[in-house]
Recover the amino acids of this structure.
């Protein structure tokens, strides 16, 4: 039997991991019952610790579902590297890695909903900006964010993309929009309104003089995430009988 491991970023300090696990259990309770949660940053529930426990209890096949928005370092390097180590230690195990959630069609639907609610209540908005984490090393997240931005361009309002890090860094690109618009909408493409989002909001407030800045909600563990995760698992199960070798589903 293949076991499902949901991999969350998490934090080594504080109680964020407990809160994340609680949110996930709430949204997954109706659709998914047999799964394990692992964190990339954790002293008690890391991906390595979860794999150790499951392998010791006899598990040999794993579906790895990264709860990440776009393919950057954690998806391209960190998770595969951990799994390669375990594949070397335990040659009999098999695993498959699902695509990130940010490229799922329902993510587009969710972001559109968040934009719609704000545009409806603030009809003077002149520009929409999707803001994600970004990467200084990889172009993959920029390409995925660009596609999401194009898919959300349905409101007859100019729309752009920016990131916290990398080529599209808001620190270098946002000032133009603040100076040339009276009202803009910033849409955080993050799982929740946490430290990074609030830090960016604080810095943007310091950059701004006269523009009215409106913020849409982050994803904030919307129930649609449950459907996205379920469908990512189903996509992996389609490949279950194709090969007995390790595979990375693209």
């Amino acid at each position: 039997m293949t076991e499902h491991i949901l991999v969350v970023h998490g934090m080594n300090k504080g109680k964020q991991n407990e809160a994340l696990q609680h949110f996930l259990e709430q949204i997954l309770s109706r659709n998914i019952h047999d799964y394990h949660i692992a964190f990339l940053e954790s002293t008690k529930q890391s991906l390595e610790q979860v794999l150790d426990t499951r392998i010791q209890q006899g598990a040999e096949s794993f579906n790895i579902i990264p709860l990440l928005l776009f393919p950057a370092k954690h998806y391209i390097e960190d998770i595969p590297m951990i799994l390669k180590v375990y594949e070397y230690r335990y040659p009999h195990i098999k695993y498959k890695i699902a695509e990130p959630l940010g490229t799922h069609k329902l993510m587009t639907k969710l972001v559109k909903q968040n934009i719609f609610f704000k545009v409806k209540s603030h009809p003077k908005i002149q520009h929409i900006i999707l803001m994600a984490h970004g990467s200084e090393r990889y172009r993959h997240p920029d390409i995925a964010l660009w596609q999401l931005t194009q898919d959300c361009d349905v409101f007859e309002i100019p729309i752009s993309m920016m990131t916290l890090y990398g080529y599209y860094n808001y620190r270098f690109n946002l000032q133009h929009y603040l100076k040339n618009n009276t009202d803009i909408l910033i849409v955080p493409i993050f799982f929740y309104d946490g430290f990074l989002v609030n830090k960016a909001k604080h810095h943007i407030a310091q950059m701004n003089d006269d523009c009215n800045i409106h913020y849409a909600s982050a994803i904030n563990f919307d129930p649609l995430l449950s459907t996205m995760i379920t469908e990512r698992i189903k996509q992996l199960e389609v490949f279950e009988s194709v090969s007995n070798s390790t595979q990375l589903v693209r």
Observations:
- Residues 176 and 234 are 44 Å apart (CA to CA).
